[in-house]
Structure formats: C-alpha cells, structure tokens
Amino acid sequence: MGPFAWRDGVLHAEEAPLPALAEAVGTPVYVYSAEAIRGSYRRLGAAFAPLGARFHYALKASPNLHVCRLIRELGAGMDVVSGGELERAWLAGTPMHEVVFAGVGKSESEIRAALDGRFSPLRGEAARFGSPSPEGRDAVGLFNCESESELEAIARVAGQLGRRARVAVRVNPNVDPHTHEYTTTGKVENKFGVDADRVVELFDRWAGDPAVELTGLHVHIGSPVPTVEPYAEAIAVLLSLIDELEARGHAVRVLDLGGGWPVDYREGEVPPIEAYADRIVPLLEPRTRAGLQVCLEPGRFLLANSGVLLTRVEHVKRGRAKTFVICDAGMHVLIRPALYRAFHFVWPVRWSGAEPRRAEDAGLAGLASCDVVGPICETGDFLARDRRLPPLARGELLAVFSAGAYGMSMASNYNDHGRPAEVLVEGERALVIAERQSLAALLETERSPRELDLGELPVAEPVAPRPAQPK
Ligand SMILES: Cc1ncc(COP(=O)(O)O)c(C=O)c1O
Question: Which residues are annotated as catalytic?
Fold first, then answer.
C-alpha cells in the first residue's frame, strides 16, 4: 500500500498516525501523501523520458491549491477545463505558457481571461492567495479545441484582443477505451473532439488565420484506460492524420495524448505504467526525434493512490437482508462508487491482523458481508457494496483507499453537508490544506435576496458561421 501502511495496529500516512489526524481535524477528511504524489510523478517521468514528454497536470483530479503547487514544483504545467481551473493554475504559480486549456464548452469570457489576464475574475484578489496579479500575464500555451464553433470563438476573441492563440485540435479517433461508458470520451457518439475525418478540412480552412495558429493535435480517449491497446489505436489515427496534414503543408508541432493513465484500485488490476510506455514510446520516438513535442495530461495517475478518505462509522444496522455500516462519508464526499460503480478498497484504520488483500475479497478469515453506505437520502449512496469486512462498531474509523483523485473535486453539498477537510502529510507533519466547509459558508450565497432589474431584454444576435476559405 506504499505510503499508507499499518504499523503497530494503526494505519499511517507516511509517518503520521491516521487516528490522531482524524481526531484533530474530524471526519470525513481526505489525506494525501506528498511523497506518494512525488513518487508517481517521477515514475511517469521515467517511463516516458525517451519521448522528452511534457506533463500538464489535469488538476480536475485534485484541484487543491497546495496539491497543485506541489506538482508545479516538480516541473509540471497544468491542464485546465474551465475558467476557475485556469485561475487555480495561475495561483499555483504556473506561467500561462505552461497551461493547456481543454474542455468542450469554453465560454467567451473564459477564452478572454485565458488570452489576457486583464479579464481574469481574480483581478485584485490574487494577492490574498500569495500570487502575483494576473493582469500582466501571457496567453495560455495551448487551447485544446473541441469544435469549429469553439475555434470561431477563440479566433473572434483573440482578434478583438490583437492576440494570436495557439490551438491544438482535439481529435475524436473513434476508439473504445474499454472503461465506464460515462468516462469514455473518444468514440464518435461521445461529445468530445472533432471527428478524425474532419480534421484535415479544418486545418485547411484555418491555415494562415491571423488570430489562431493551429499547431497540434490532442486526444483523450477516456479515463481510466485499463489496457494499453486503445492508446496504440488512437496514436495510429493521429499519426496518419499528422502525415496527411504535413503532406498538405501544415506544421504539426505538438501531440497531446491526454490522460487516463491507469492505477490499481484493486491490487494488480492494471498493467504497470511502464508497460504502457513500452508500447507507446517506439510508436512516437521517430517523431519526437524529428521535433514533435509529446505532452501527457496525467491526473488520476498522480493522485488516486496518493490519497485516502477517512470516515467514521455512525451506526451499524443489521437488516433482514444485509448489514449496513452507515458512515459520515457517502456520495456527497466520494461519488465514484455511486456514479461509476467504482471500486474502492475499504478497511478499518485500526487493524492488527494480517495485511488484507486490496480487493473485494481481502483473503482473511473472520470477515462478514456488509454494505458500507453514507448518510444521504439515496439508495445509490454507497461506498462499497457486499464487501467482506471485519466486524465493525459505531465510532470506528475506516479508510477508503485510492480516493486521492476525483474524490474531493467531485464532492457536493447534497443534503446540506459542508465539504470535507483536506490534509497533506509530509513525513510526520500533517498540514490542513483545506478547512472543512462550515454551514455558514455553505449558506452565504443565499443570505440576502436581490431583486433583478429585468428592463428590456436585448435581442440576441446569432453568430454567423465562418465562410469556407480555399487554401
Ligand atoms: C482532456 C482530459 N485530459 C486529462 C484528463 C485526466 O484524466 P486522468 O485523471 O484519468 O489522467 C481528463 C479527465 O477527464 C480529460 O478529460
């Protein structure tokens, strides 16, 4: 279990005992290991070193500013998918030219702030977070553009600002990543990217535009991708597109392979990252030697197994059909089990028995079946179903493993629960990097109703599509 191990009957994060941590900050709480994050970054770096790959951390996985700063210190750029994430990347100390702006629904105001810091919603606020003002900052290094409509919007805004935006076209390669249907993003029926057979036409039409420079291709087929072959299939589609584009006189300088790099939620569930690199590196090495810059957007790989969620058992209910272990964390804290039927290994923080196997069946005697559920008024509110666990009692502390990615970032206030605290452990030190959200903070936006002046509604002008431009 790497950074999370039982010593003297108590689960530790690095050198920090988790019962003491839970006592100090309360539950539910996300706990991250700084060394685990660094270790996974170094491992990914070593695997893809032959390509000289650049990493942009997909901060949607765990957007906490202090986590982002730690990853930034390792040398990563940031992959963002909203104006809010863009500002986080800035507050984390990322120069804009190392930011990649992805996302299928960029608004004009987000595009404007990504091109010119004078339009940042953080103006006047950045100093409170120890960051320089965004006003004088550059444009983002790359927009990963998902449609021609978006390209038109980027060109329109860049033109107004007198800037030239660097853009990669996100390609939909129609490849099945064999992951959950909700996180499958590279098939033609998914909303993401431009169909592969439309990409050349798009480059032809936009070549030489004064406001946008089409400079690369981007692909993200899904998350997580549990086998390597779908990456190889997608890369084949992209390489043949690059050949065709270059034959038509377009320079493709960047190939961004996205994220989806897998982790073990169960022990030994997926091949190691090195096996992915062994398959991918030879496909791309000739191109990188010829000057192509390869980028990756890891999120889950850096964070998932670098974090656990601690939750307290509130009640144990022995029903006719099942035993329910009712905890203070549920779908409002960690939605992955409810949303994707995702597996998270759950085990008591105090445990003196043999090391459990991190799987549905921990491989130990004396276990009994139960559902580990939350307090939310939904039947879909569960952390683990039909799981064999040691006998549990009220007050017991449980660890939900592999919860560092897409845990806190997808947490909600459903049923009026404040969002949990976050703690970053470094050796023996435990730093609260996000306070538990108070009820007062949760209610703040509703404090005083404000009457709207509806006046006369302006008639919205539809935006005319760009005429075809012969090359
Ligand atoms: C465009 C893009 N890049 C990168 C990622 C990160 O994926 P992962 O956390 O699985 O590495 C995502 C996840 O949704 C994504 O949509």
Answer: 377
